[in-house]
Design brief:
The chain is α/β, with parallel strands linked by helices. Helices cover about 35% and strands about 15% of the residues. It has helices at about 35-45, 65-70, 75-80, 95-100, 105-115, 120-130, 145-160, 175, 180-190, 215-220, 225-240, and strands at about 25-30, 50-55, 90, 120, 135-140, 160-170, 200, 225.
Length: about 260
């Protein structure tokens, strides 16, 4: 065996960039999540924006009680994303849990670990997206049970929307929700949209709805907002990225607004 070469340390170190990537988006997802990470990689991540993911414990079935159990895990999840470094936005990627726990409570938990970071939840982003599109009368489609859908209806009604129709699919396991094909979601959207609705909101970060947005909009002839699409749009705009991405729906062509 030949002797190892002498290890030489360079006398000077290279200059460092301020950040490896200009902008940072944190993403807190469920341990069982199959969809949020690929969607954010597809819609948000770029040579300018990095997406940094933490998973927190979660066990099915998707009931309000189980969803609420994630609240104590939020601060720890946020703390694991680039400790001691700032983020430009952070998203807790669970629509139904955000509704059950509450946007303000989620923001407080995350900001206890990441002070001052703008916090995005899917229903909050959905509201912003629907308002940016000028929608007032809406239809809602969820994969949940009736029990888990009820808080969702109350959430959007409390924010001034007239819900003309609400359709749920009765699933209790988010891993099964992720297995619904995008083409099937297009067909479901056609059936779930009320004739007088201004837009359709498709709830659940487990659904591959972002891949179906263009098809849904073509099928129903009006805007569609989905959980991951709206969250991605909100995070992009918080990062100062105004790029239009019409392949992910009309919402992805709009500014964030108020």
């Amino acid at each position: 065996m030949k002797p190892l070469p002498e290890i030489r340390q360079m006398p000077t170190r290279p200059a460092l960039d301020a950040r490896p990537l200009e902008k940072r988006v944190g993403l807190i997802i469920l341990a069982t999540d199959h969809t949020s990470e690929p969607d954010f990689r597809r819609m948000v991540a770029s040579e300018r924006i990095g997406v940094y993911v933490a998973r927190i414990p979660y066990k099915n079935p998707t009931t309000p009680e189980n969803l609420r159990k994630m609240q104590p895990e939020l601060a720890a999840g946020a703390a694991l994303i680039l400790p001691d470094e700032t983020l430009d936005a952070i998203c807790y990627s669970c629509t139904s849990a955000s509704v059950v726990i509450g946007d303000a409570e989620i923001e407080a938990a995350i900001q206890s670990a990441k002070s001052g970071v703008p916090v995005v939840t899917p229903p909050m982003a959905g509201v912003r997206g629907l308002k940016a599109l000028g929608a007032k009368k809406i239809s809602i489609l969820t994969p949940y049970t009736v029990e888990t859908s009820k808080p969702m209806a109350a959430y959007f009604a409390a924010r001034g929307f007239e819900i003309l129709s609400f359709t749920c699919l009765g699933f209790e396991d988010d891993r099964e929700m992720a297995r619904i094909a995008p083409a099937a979601i297009v067909d479901l959207a056609r059936e779930a949209t009320h004739a007088e609705a201004d837009a359709l909101f498709v709830s659940c970060t487990a659904l591959r709805g972002a891949l179906a947005v263009a098809g849904m909009e073509e099928a129903i002839g009006r805007p569609v907002v989905t959980s991951n699409q709206a969250s991605a749009w909100n995070c992009l705009r918080l990062c100062g990225d105004g790029t239009t991405r019409p392949e992910f729906g009309r919402l992805m062509t709009l500014p964030l607004g108020q």
